[in-house]
Write a structure and sequence with these properties.
The structure holds two protein chains of two kinds. Chain A is 0% helix and 55% strand. By secondary structure, chain A is mainly beta. Chain B is an all-beta fold. The chains are: A mainly beta, B mainly beta. The interface between A and B is medium-sized, with 28 and 25 residues.
């Protein structure tokens, strides 16, 4: 899996720009991927998900891309707003003995400047 | 407002105390989870319950004891914790396994 460093990767953008947050996942057996947004003092909030039989999924202002060949996931946010400032986590679900183990990536801090 | 409610929001306890964290959801979800989150780190899975039965224990020390009294409630019983157990404890639920999770806002636990 990904090593968790001491510092949270940070992406700074201007309001109105598009943002792209990347994530590398570890297990080729994972078949379900989710992006969460976590604001300060709150729990993670579901944004968008994608299953391994798809390579792209769109929501409102957000798009998730999945590249299974290189085990890479990205989240694109269109017309980024100050309210999008938060930590973004990708998560992969790996099957295990009839259950599933969700594993979170290390997270990226998105800072949106007005 | 979150649909997963966790109590208490904050808890300070000594290493010899026994306390419990509580989590409640009324969405009819059949899978519930406990996570531990340290500052600036991702949530780490501790336990998964599916249909009120423990399905995953991620090698969590026995000083943490989960309980699922019914499909809406999830408890985490704490006993003889260590200072390194200080963290944000998050509860989540999902309609079933392999579905998106709904998180509570967590209990911030400090061990003296």
């Amino acid at each position: 899996g990904e090593s968790v460093g001491l510092h949270l990767p940070t992406l700074s953008v201007q309001e109105g720009d598009n943002s792209i947050i990347n994530c590398a996942y570890s297990n080729s057996a994972s078949d379900y991927f989710i992006w969460y947004k976590q604001e300060s003092g709150k729990g993670p909030q579901f944004i968008i998900d994608i299953r391994s039989n798809m390579d792209k999924r769109q929501g409102q202002r957000v798009t998730v891309l999945l590249n299974k060949t290189v085990k890479h996931l990205s989240l694109q946010i269109a017309a980024t707003q100050p309210g999008d400032s938060a930590v973004y986590f990708c998560a992969e679900n790996r099957g295990s003995g009839g259950s599933y183990i969700p594993t979170f990536g290390r997270g990226t801090s998105l800072i949106v400047h007005p | 407002d979150t649909e997963v409610t966790q109590t208490p929001k904050h808890l300070v306890m000594g290493m010899t105390n026994k306390k419990s964290l509580k989590c409640e959801q009324h969405m009819g979800h059949r899978a519930m989870y406990w996570y531990k989150q340290k500052a600036k780190k991702p949530p780490e899975l501790m336990f998964v319950y599916s249909y009120e039965k423990l399905s995953i224990n991620e090698s969590v020390p026995s000083r943490f004891s989960p309980e699922c009294p019914n499909s809406s409630l999830l408890n985490l019983h704490l006993h003889a914790l260590q200072p390194e157990d200080s963290a944000l404890y998050l509860c989540a639920s999902s309609q079933d396994l392999n579905q998106p999770q709904h998180f509570g806002d967590g209990t911030r636990l400090s061990i003296l």
